[in-house]
Amino acid sequence: MADQRFVPSLMQLRVFLAVAERLHFRSAAEELGMSQPSLSQALATLEDGLGLHLVERSTRSVLVTPAGHRLLPYARAAVTAMDAVADAAAGSDGPLFGSLRIGVIPTVAPYLLPGLLPALGERFPDLTPRVVEDQTSRLVDGLRSGVIDLAIMAVPTDAMGVAATPLYSEPFALLVPASHELAGREGLPLEILVDQPLLMLDEGHCLREQTVELCRRVSAPVLGRGESRAASLTTAVRCVAGGLGVTIVPESAVGPETRDPGIAVARFADPVPGRTIGLVLRTATAGADAYAEFGRVVAEVAAQEFGATPV
Fold first, then answer.
1. Dist. CA 276–CA 165, nearest whole Å
2. Domain formed by 172-273, architecture
3. Which superfamily, per CATH, for 94-168+275-310?
4. How many CB atoms lie within 10 A of CB 60?
5. 3-state SS assignment for residue 77
6. What's the CATH architecture for 10-88?
7. d(Cα 50, Cα 67) in Å, to the nearest integer?
8. How many whole angstroms separate alpha carbon 298 and alpha carbon 310?
9. Extended strands (E) in 2-147
């Protein structure tokens, strides 16, 4: 039976949202920066106070109960509202003061952050960035649950509850073994992908989805490409250096990933395929003007570091 005097705490709601999004207690605890026993205790206290079982946990899986599903939108709205209160309370200092939790997708973070973090320190000296590198879907979940404040990722996105602002665009290039017949070639048609052993990233990476879309445009096979696949772009490039295939990369990765003499670059003909990177916020996030200034810094750094085109 529910305790009529019980009022859930913001942390208890964050715990519930993190477990419901991750469906994994250890991952949820890591996301929130707390121990797994503390997370389990917070969830148990929430369930006891509400008089409801929100999550079913077994040795093999974690499931959200029907009651949990009914409460999810209210918990999410409460966390979002409290974050908006905190943003508004920042007053004249605005949101770019103090700690800022920044989510970045893995195919952007290694190439943008070395230039971005010093630039942020110079432009916003009172800001303390906290970086979370993760795949797109989990960054969106983190935004919704309030675990991160903003995300830098490929746009557009059709995810509910978030709003995206394009920041910069960059072309794609093809990395091949140095001895490959396409090494150093320019003006390649997309149709060249039909006959190439194309290395793909794992499911969940937006770069994989973009590569699959390029293959579909020219009726290149997507399945049956081979057994090699990579969890990171750097691993895919190392496979290219080992002669296991070729891979599509954003322009930002070309310089850092071609320092290996076993790697060469081939480039596509106009219109060159590419991607757009944007700033993604919760729709309820306050301080949009200050975040717009943050976005301008990101676009400036991308243009300086790897020649991206501001949008």
1. 10
2. 3-Layer(aba) Sandwich (3.40)
3. Periplasmic binding protein-like II (3.40.190.10)
4. 5
5. helix
6. Orthogonal Bundle (1.10)
7. 11
8. 9
9. 55-57, 62-64, 98-104, 127-133
Tokens coding 86:
């905190």
Identical fold, 94-168+275-310 and 172-273: yes
Cis peptide before 106 (omega within 30 of 0): no
Find which of 25-29, 108-112, 156-160, 290-294 is predicted with most confidence, using mean pLDDT: 108-112
Provide the whole-model pTM.
0.73
Structure tokens at 259: 């320092």
Alpha carbons 272 and 193: distance in angstroms, whole number:
14
d(CA 13, CA 68): 11
Q: Where on the phi/psi map is residue 119: left (φ > 0), alpha (ψ -120 to 50), or beta?
A: alpha
248 token code pair: 């599509």
List, for residues 47-82, the tens digit of each pLDDT value.
999 999 999 988 788 999 999 999 999 998 898 888
Domain borders along the chain are 10-88, 94-168+275-310, 172-273
Q: How much is the CA Rg of the chain, to the nearest whole Å?
A: 22
**Both tokens of residue 165?**
């602002």
